[in-house]
Amino acid sequence: MKIAIIGTRGIPNRYGGFEQLAEYLSIGLADRGHEVYVYNSHDHDWQEKMWKNVHIVHCYDPEEKMGTAGQFIYDLNCVRDARRRSFDVILMLGYTSISVWGRWFDRKPVTVINMDGLEWKRTKYSKPVRRFLQYAERLAVRFCDFFIADSPAIQKYLKDKYDIPSEYIAYGAEVFDYEDERLLEPFGIRPDGYYMLMARMEPENNIETVLNGFHASASSKKLLIVGNTSNRFGQYLVKKFEGDERIRFVGAIYDAKVVHTLKVYSALYFHGHSVGGTNPSLLEAMASRALIAAHDNMFNRAILGEDAFYFGNAVEVCELVDGVVEAETKRTMVARNLRKIREDFTWEKITDRYERFLKACFVSSKNSAEIYER
């Protein structure tokens, strides 16, 4: 098949979850013999037309000059370019700024969309923006042919809200079989001597809840906060907790070996994400053999089940921090989560599921419900 992947800033991944999906998926599909094109922002640092057997199409992206509005122009430029290339399948990752151009979608190729999470629930957005995101979600349902949900909870939401079927395909994760204790030295920490949280500085990731709980605890361990704190919320958190020497904001870390090692040796890894589907960072924590404390919501429970501790407020975080985890409990939880990754969430298996579904979409009549797995 000739496949386009639209809706990301491009590959190699320099940004986030959808870019990571586009990177691994495009390589996997190309290795299976498909002709794959990924759309990149014009100013992406990879400027070649090929990357690991994947075609790269650069389109003008004015986001740096226009802010968020530039994303809509970029997506329109991608949609217009795709009309000229006779694709068999167009895979769209997310609907936020592309579904408004639904009337311009090329109707010849099959359009498949990964619906992402419930974007309109994100508290970082104003009420008018959240209303727009609900509208954009409806447009995606209207103009696309087939749907992918990255979480069973999103799959249920689409069925209940719009009465449409969707294919559940999660993200993947890479299992690392190495760690080097020496990588902890620059952070001034030792194995099991710290807790860790890694996330974008956004309210719905419950970072402040975790920090409030830890701050109230009697723990002598450190708490490492990994993520860029340059935005307003990040600066607010740094200021609020600057008096607690145990809390350390270490910024964004892009070295996979370092991130993996920090997760492996942490006493507890806090995952506070509460909006969206299956979050890639959660799967990566599972693959890194971290003991996980997750925000108690349907998305996290759908993946972790009984193999994590859960919190809903700062008091529960404090209780987790001050509590004692038996070694056998930790070994059991970590082992079962790692087994889930190896059995269900490797990138090879995720690519297999995408390939199988995209093929079924391509050969089926549009809007046929028969292709979805029961």
Structure report:
With 374 residues, this protein is an alpha/beta fold. The chain is built from 13 helices and 14 strands. The protein has helices spanning 17-31, 63-66, 69-82, 127-143, 152-162, 207-215, 232-240, 256-265, 280-287, 298-304, 314-322, 327-344, 347-363; strands at 2-6, 35-41, 50-51, 54-59, 89-93, 110-114, 146-149, 167-168, 194-198, 222-226, 247-251, 268-271, 292-295, 309-311. Strands 3-4-2-1-5-6-7-8 form an eight-stranded mixed β-sheet, with helices on both faces. The protein has a six-stranded parallel β-sheet with strand order 11-10-9-12-13-14, sandwiched between helices. The radius of gyration is 21 Å and the shape is globular. The chain starts with a strand and ends in an 11-residue tail after the last helix.
Offer a quick outline of the entry.
With 374 residues, this protein is an alpha/beta fold. The chain is built from 13 helices and 14 strands.
Helical run tally: 13
Show unreliable segments.
none
Strand content: 15-25%
Percent helix: 25-40%
Q: What structural category do the secondary elements indicate?
A: alpha/beta
The description of the largest β-sheet is:
8 strands, mixed
* Count of individual beta strands: 14
What is the typical, i.e. mean, pLDDT? Answer: 91
Overall outline: globular
Rg estimate, integer Å: 21 Å
The run of helices and strands is EHEEEHHEEHEHEEHEHEHEHEHEHHH
Distance between the termini: 25 Å
Strand ordering within the main sheet: 3-4-2-1-5-6-7-8
